[in-house]
Design brief:
The protein is α+β, with helices and mostly antiparallel strands. It is 44% helix and 31% strand.
């Protein structure tokens, strides 16, 4: 597995990168000892014991649905009240339909990781498959750490 030079210099003896994740704006690595994130030239690591929770979130674009509804209403208004549909009305209708389709097809997906000592959750955005894989790996590592202490 190809590991960034910046990551290798921070690794400790016996540490092995087991999986990497290409996410939006960063690359994350799961090692046998910790979770490492490289964003630009910044490298941050999180001990698995300090990750208190991790969850998958999917956010809909409800504002697009509302704006699409308004645009459709404005575009259809002349048709119902004045028996004509001008070019401006067609433009509003087309815009409204595009907003609806966009709201249905595009959903923001991200992981939120709550880490002890960090006030706001750490967010990761990316492809659904990559985020699911990341979620499973971190949960498995956390479970392994808990089982190892018993």
């Amino acid at each position: 597995m190809k590991v960034d030079r910046d990551i290798k210099q921070f690794m400790v003896e016996g540490e092995v990168i087991q999986k990497s994740f290409k996410l939006s704006g960063c690359t994350a690595y799961a090692s046998n000892k910790r979770f490492i994130v490289k964003k630009g030239s910044t490298v941050t690591d999180y001990d698995y014991d300090h990750i208190s929770s991790i969850s998958f979130k999917q956010q809909g674009f409800y504002v697009l649905i509302i704006l699409g509804s308004v645009s459709l209403a404005v575009g259809l208004f002349p048709l119902f009240y004045w028996d004509f549909l001008g070019l401006l009305g067609l433009m509003f209708i087309a815009t409204g339909v595009c907003m609806f389709v966009g709201a249905i097809l595009v959903k923001a997906r991200h992981l939120e990781m709550t880490v002890i000592g960090i006030v706001s959750p750490v967010k990761f955005m990316g492809e659904r498959a990559e985020l699911n894989s990341l979620l499973k790996v971190v949960r498995k590592k956390k479970q392994g750490n808990v089982m190892g202490r018993q």
